[in-house]
Amino acid sequence: MNQGATWYPLKHRQFRLFWSAGAVINIAIWMQTVGAAWIMAGLTDSAWMVSLVQTAMTLPVFLFGLPGGVIADLVNRKYWLLFTQSVMLTAASILFVLAATGSLSSWMLLSLTFLLGTGSALSMSAWMAVTLTLIPREIVPAAVALNAISTNVARALGPAIGGLLIAVAGQASMFLLIACCFMGVILFLFGWRPVRVSNVLPPETFLGGMRSGLRYIRHSVSLVSSLKQVFIFTSCASALWALLPLIAKDQLQMEADGYGLLMAALGAGAVIAALNLTRLYRLVALRQLVVVGAVAFAIVTAAVSLTDVVWVVWLLLVIAGIAWMAVNATVATIVQTCAADWVRARVASVYLLMYMGAMAVGGAVWGLIADYLGTTNSLLLATVSIVLGLWLTRDGVFVLGSEADYRTVSQTDELVVAAEINHSDGPVSVEISYWALDEFQQDFIKCAYAVGQSRRRNGARNWRLYRDLADPNRFVERFIVESWLGYLRQRDRVTQADQNTESQLQRYVINTDVATKRYIHQPNAMDGW
User: Fold this and answer.
1) pLDDT single digits (tens) 137-155
2) pLDDT tens digits for 206-234?
3) What SS3 class is residue 340?
4) What is the pTM of this model?
5) How far is CA 381 from CA 226, 236, 291, 384, 410, in A?
6) Closest by alpha carbon to 271, among 26, 521, 439?
7) Which of 156, 384, 464, 485 has a 20 to 30 Å separation from 9 between CA atoms?
8) Domain 8-392 is classified in which CATH homologous superfamily?
């Protein structure tokens, strides 16, 4: 099988097992999301309360996604995953007991759905990071596509299974199956033996890890563009997801199993798209793919609001699923391929925060709008907002990163330290001297600022490029790192792409023996008096 094929990562046993366990979790979560929304529609007539089910599942990602990503980089991921799965198992078990005894209320349903969503939010980054470390780097893009297929197959199967169980065996049966799914994953994790990774440097603190993750994203043009795109599109397009229960119940006069089939149409379209994504990336510019997907989703959203023919709506939702993936799966692939290894879990957590946070906020907002304007007018307004979102993101940069470029590399220059330095000592100031003739200065400055961006991604602050007043051809690069340990981490985080950019500056270095000078803060000797 070709390594570029979508299914190739499944040849690796550990990845195959984790991918399968992740699929079970996704099915359980989609059963919960869709089944709870249908149950809520029977408990209350409020469109806002129905839309809050989606919010209860996705808002925890907005609240806990980034902390979950930081923790995933700091603790033993096996025990962290066991804890988060146990939280979800507890929530599903309580829902089963309440449903079986007829004690389930609308607010209790929302509260326990929120608890289950919290466990999911805390585990997402760890699960993604573990899964992608089980395979060679060159097939990670295919693995991202496979994860998208897993999610969207679950989107097709979960609602269908949940709706069928509610219709045939009652609400409690669905919650029982969800609990069994989480129990099975817990048993799988107990048998997993992760490979221990030795770290030369001590781990970051929780707050330090959070700061470094956000700083990395802030100084990456590709990541900022991708996260902006996913938040704007998803918050606008979430109207169709949030209001679909009302479309099924009021517009199409369907029961729970019919609603599940509508959700299955969205999932089926998404799977069709995912199977062809890697080929499309080679044939179509990513920006063009995103624009076509967003426009198609907007057209479908408007069309669904204006028809009550079931089979037409079903076909439209298949197209919507394809369009959804054309935007969000493309962005997810960019995010995963443009993140260095040391920060991948944190970048993934911020992506999930933007994506699920947009679903949560969008679900609540569109539910409130539907209470006042009605379902049809709300979907038409969402159509306009999706198109407007394309204008807001018109300057985005969408490029797939190379796994080779984002692999960290060892630094070859020697650190000359005349005295003993503690990890906590600092700040550290670094100064590098360059010399560029007038005709080369434009190229030099462009290169220098590209290097400055990479240094800031990896931990530097107060980066500046200075021109010597006495010699207009001489330049000095200066930056600060908060401690000696921070400086060591910054050097340890340099990727192949960073090193390639820095090598372009080497021809401007004045003298390799004295070009780089490092200074450390000297406290006032009288401070203790």
Assistant:
1) 667 667 777 887 787 677 6
2) 888 888 889 999 988 889 999 999 999 99
3) coil
4) 0.80
5) 24, 9, 19, 5, 53
6) 26
7) 156
8) MFS general substrate transporter like domains (1.20.1250.20)
